[in-house]
């Protein structure tokens, strides 16, 4: 059904908070990835769960698609509206509802970003740890099962959410759990919704776990002769039980890009970015142990950043890598892909990826959340050159195929969206994808929630 | 359809591994809880995934119920067969398929018990941490989303399983994930199956996370003036970021029972059982910090157990509490209930529970995984006395009602089974329970998988 039939109702519900302005529509159909954008037909800026429920009821009755929108920082076309419909923008539904300091949790609206939440928490001595790089919204991070640099220590969104409030496709409001730290009461609707990318429900409140801000934090970088040496160092550190806070790997070309972009002069070698945290005694012990382990693998040239400004500079270099990579070739865009393998296969997977880059005319950089076996590539290409677009596609598919062959996943943290639906069956098999399609059909029988994402087809 | 119609096929598939012996049937319909037992019509002892798939296909086609059986240690009637049918006994499907030391994971068959798995792992320096007390099977622990004394440090089954192989109701075999440490590839079928109590699928392989055996482990007990003091000590320790390995609370009557049963002479006061682990430096620091925190809350009389035998004795006293409690009143049985609340509400919830016991003719003991806000009660009753049975029911319902009123759950770790289906809607509301029923109907349309558990009715 064309959206025009529900526009009057949307207008009367939202007034000025509903728009069909072309510029606004366009900006809501484009994420930070390299897939083509697709604008919705209307955008509503919601303030309450009840409003979300009313939009769902309208769309459920008429078959109009709904796409949820947070910060727009996803990478696999999650927020594109290929079938048009209503975009629900959650950015004005961004309050902290409640902080429970003794329980170390907070209830927030989905549109709050992680940095705003952490700023709000500063005086409590607590923080929310999941850090995907981008200043994404908490709701969006739930929807994509986000993780990032701190996941090796604190886990991903699936580990840091206690409960959700979710509006189903038909407008009913579901509480997935309460604030108890654990529960064995029925199916885990919380985890089912986390990572469902807006295809099973619309997240309207999130109860997140918080953690104590550590007493001491120290960071360091250390170059290694080869990627394998860096990875072996990480494996040994983890097996030794050292609770590292962050363990990031940048390959030699990434270090070159960082140096050029940020006017630094780090060694152009595979390099670990490490962070240690805890009590001062515990950090001192961790530092000593990791230095000894690194030395066994040829990593001896540690550069330390103990002061908070030095750490900020070090991590800024890491977090700016996307822009540093783009600057290697002015005017280019980058395909940011994302795979994750068992850590014992990580060096091999990176090695095969480097070989694929060497055999290609395109340039690729590798950076990884190495403690989790997760890495990204930035493959630089000219978006106006059809041959390069084809080559970058081929390389992306090749990297995924290598990861799957090494018992890995086609996405460690970016999600399936539209960009990776083609890999899901190769990864998990037809029965698993069909089980997902059955669940999708059960909870969203008219297929209005973010159509075309994860499960683009009906169950068999 | 009566099972008699598929018995010949089961016989030809399983030969001597299929039985209708009355004693075997009876023992497969009874768990360790206090609910009435209900025997299946036949038991098959499976060896392979393919056999499980064949049983499912037979039952799916004929509407015969299937109940999965592991160690039989569940407490809420999970393994009862109120509609008869086939019990699939997994205890002979109990191999370690593969241990990946570098990746710190293992792939196991579902019938292996946690103690057998840990004995197998001993030489690797790794262990599987989830400890529900009973020597349950890994498959059963997945099915009930088990947790226990070490969950405050290592999480529950949902946090310690990377992937499952599951046979669906129609016999199709699903791989829920691969061995990558994290994935954002589609719906989290792993977590959906964990805690589904055999109602959505039959678990035929489990990839578990392993952890390094800590260098140093030290345990202690410390009595406190009041339950509130012990809980406040725990809250402060957690907020301080001390990574405690175990934090258990026993109330004064539990300590009396422990003393009598194990010939000990601990103080008859609310007591914390604590365990510290890590490097020797880290443990020494944790011990010092926790002693200082405990002293602020009136806990000064620490008794330490550093040697492995002393620790074993200390934890045996805790783990034997069920029998110690029963011994307080020879011939009685115990209702073991299980609730979990936000930790800031824990002292209040325990206080209300103690008040309920004081107002009752029955005796109740309280013990808790206090770091998680989870506690159990043992309420002693005479199973042959109808009035006592009624009173124990009333008390159990009252404790759940208190927990729900304090933003908690009707079960932290024992699950819903048949015993707690009546509380699920009160806890999560009708839309949530209906969403569960929709998922159940989608994946098991003929309702053959463990009927009567979690979701006893069809969706609205």
From TrEMBL, chains A, B:
Coiled coil: none annotated. GO terms for molecular function: D-lactate dehydrogenase (cytochrome) activity; D-lactate dehydrogenase (NAD+) activity; FAD binding. InterPro entries: FAD-bd_oxidored_4_C (IPR004113), FAD-bd_PCMH (IPR016166), FAD-bd_PCMH-like_sf (IPR036318), FAD-bd_PCMH_sub2 (IPR016169), FAD-linked_Oxase-like_C (IPR016164), Oxid_FAD_bind_N (IPR006094), Vanillyl_alc_oxidase_C-sub2 (IPR016171). It is an enzyme of class 1 (oxidoreductase). Its cofactor is FAD. Belongs to the FAD-binding oxidoreductase/transferase type 4 family. This is D-lactate dehydrogenase (cytochrome).
């Amino acid at each position: 059904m064309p959206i025009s039939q529900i526009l009057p109702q949307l207008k009367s519900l939202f007034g000025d908070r509903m728009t069909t302005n072309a510029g606004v529509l366009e900006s809501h159909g484009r994420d930070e990835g390299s897939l083509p954008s697709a604008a919705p037909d209307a955008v509503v800026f919601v303030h309450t769960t009840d409003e979300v429920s009313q939009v769902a009821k309208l769309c459920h009755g008429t078959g109009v698609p709904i796409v949820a929108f947070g910060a727009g920082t996803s990478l696999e076309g999650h927020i594109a509206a290929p079938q048009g419909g209503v975009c629900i923008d959650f950015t004005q539904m961004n309050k902290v509802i409640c902080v429970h300091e003794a329980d170390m949790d907070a209830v927030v609206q989905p549109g709050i970003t992680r940095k705003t939440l952490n700023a709000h928490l500063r005086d409590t001595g607590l923080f929310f740890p999941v850090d995907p790089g981008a200043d994404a919204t908490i709701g969006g991070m739930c929807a994509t099962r986000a993780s990032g640099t701190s996941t090796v220590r604190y886990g991903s969104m699936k580990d840091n959410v206690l409960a959700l409030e979710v509006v189903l496709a038909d407008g009913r409001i579901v509480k997935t759990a309460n604030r108890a730290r654990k529960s064995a009461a029925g199916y885990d609707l919380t985890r089912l919704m986390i990572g469902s990318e807006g295809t099973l429900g619309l997240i309207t409140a999130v109860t997140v776990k918080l953690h104590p801000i550590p007493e001491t934090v120290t960071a360091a970088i250390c170059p290694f002769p080869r990627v394998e040496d860096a990875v072996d160092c990480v494996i040994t550190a983890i097996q030794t039980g050292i609770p590292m806070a962050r363990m990031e790997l940048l390959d030699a070309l990434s270090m070159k890009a960082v140096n050029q972009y940020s006017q630094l002069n780090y060694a152009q070698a595979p390099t670990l970015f490490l962070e240690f945290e805890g009590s001062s005694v515990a950090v001192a012990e961790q530092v000593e142990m990791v230095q000894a382990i690194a030395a066994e693998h040829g990593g001896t040239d540690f550069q330390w950043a103990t002061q908070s400004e030095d750490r900020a500079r070090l991590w800024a270099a890491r977090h700016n890598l996307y822009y540093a990579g783009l600057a290697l070739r002015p005017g280019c865009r980058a395909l940011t892909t994302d795979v994750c393998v068992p850590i014992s296969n990580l060096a091999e997977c990176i090695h095969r990826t480097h070989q694929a880059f060497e055999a290609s005319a395109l340039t690729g950089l590798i950076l990884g959340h190495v403690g989790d076996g997760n890495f990204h590539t930035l493959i630089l290409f000219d978006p106006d050159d059809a041959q390069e677009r084809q080559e970058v596609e081929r390389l992306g598919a090749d990297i995924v195929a290598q990861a799957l062959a090494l018992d890995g996943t086609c996405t460690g943290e970016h999600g399936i969206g539209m960009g990776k639906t083609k890999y899901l069956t190769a990864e998990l098999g037809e029965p698993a994808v069909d089980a997902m399609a059955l669940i999708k059909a059960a909870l969203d029988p008219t297929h209005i929630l973010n159509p075309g994402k994860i499960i683009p087809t009906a169950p068999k």
